[in-house]
Amino acid sequence: MLKRFKAGFTLVELSISIAFIAILSITITVLTTNIIAAYQRGLTIKQVNTTGMNLISDIKSSIANSSAKNLTDLCSSTYGDETIRSACENDKAQNFVSLSRSAEVTLNSETIGTMPVQGAFCTGTYSYLWNSGYYYSGEHGVGIPAIKLIYKDGDGAQKTLENFRFLKLSDPSRSVCVAMTLSGSSAGVGDTNYTTGLTQFSNEINISGLGIVSDTPIELLNPDNEFDLAIYGLAVARPAQDMLTRNVLYSGYFILATVRGGININADGDYCAPPSEYSSTTTDYCAINKFNFAIQANGE
Fold first, then answer.
1. Residue 167's closest CA among 234, 114, 115?
2. Where is pLDDT greater, at 78 or 255?
3. Choosing a second label site near 297 at 20 to 30 A (CA), which of 39, 107, 153, 273?
4. CA angle 147-191-173, nearest 5°?
5. Closest-CA residue to 81 (of 188, 170, 165, 178)
6. What pLDDT is recorded for position 185?
7. pLDDT on residue 255
8. In 3D, which of 244, 278, 240 has the Cα closest to residue 259?
9. What is the pLDDT of residues 124-146, one digit of tens each?
């Protein structure tokens, strides 16, 4: 009489198999998530670097086509007081090249320090106006309002632009920096105190009475971009001029970063807050970089 054996898994073997499959599934999920996260982080860093280099290229083109000839001339045409005019000329009219303003910034209801939050850079062909990324993240608070620009278009109509991040506009007379410098005092044209490193100016920059801007200002950092980038500081040193060739060298830097990420440029080492502090997901990364430039203008 033949004995029949029933084939199959025992309960222990089945439990081991299920446990192995579960561990394997978790491992694959974790690896896949990490790969996606690493890929997205790489894309974010790449986007910051690519955008930064594009901005340098744009600034380089603006400076290369500019002239310093009318720079110190602005001291004479702007200031009636000889002492103020002399101070302006001795400073190479730095306020008509670059200005910035700082304010206290809060992150998650805590003050993280005084940060540069807005400013301008006037090249003599185009001018750039910027508002910090701190204005565009709900996790941050800034002690002063963002800059608004009031200008006239080619038809002479007065327009107002606000909520911009990095604005470029045709401005051969450097009217943006002139208006910002003069708005730093209530005394008016001719009596305005000339201060190196001006830190106070109106949040409404009105250039409508200083000239007509024929081209519509351009936003260089599209807020609809998925990486959501903004400027966190821009400074330009006093232009250096070669007395023989009359060429002018501009040098400076800007900080570009994502709006998300709890950015703190005063931090030591890690400028991005830990993901848990800004509700980041595996595809929502913070990235920051500083870009230095040294560009020669045509001179006089």
1. 234
2. 255
3. 153
4. 50
5. 188
6. 47
7. 94
8. 278
9. 889 999 999 999 987 788 988 99
Q: In whole angstroms, give the CA distance from residue 276 to residue 289.
A: 22
**Segment 43-49 mean pLDDT:** 88
Which structure tokens are listed for 51? 């955008």
Residue 259 · residue 272 · CB < 8 Å: no
Phi, psi of 213 (to 5 degrees): -95, 110
49-93 confidence digits (pLDDT tens): 999 999 999 999 888 877 766 677 777 777 777 777 777 777 767
Residue type, 247: N
Average pLDDT over residues 87-105: 81
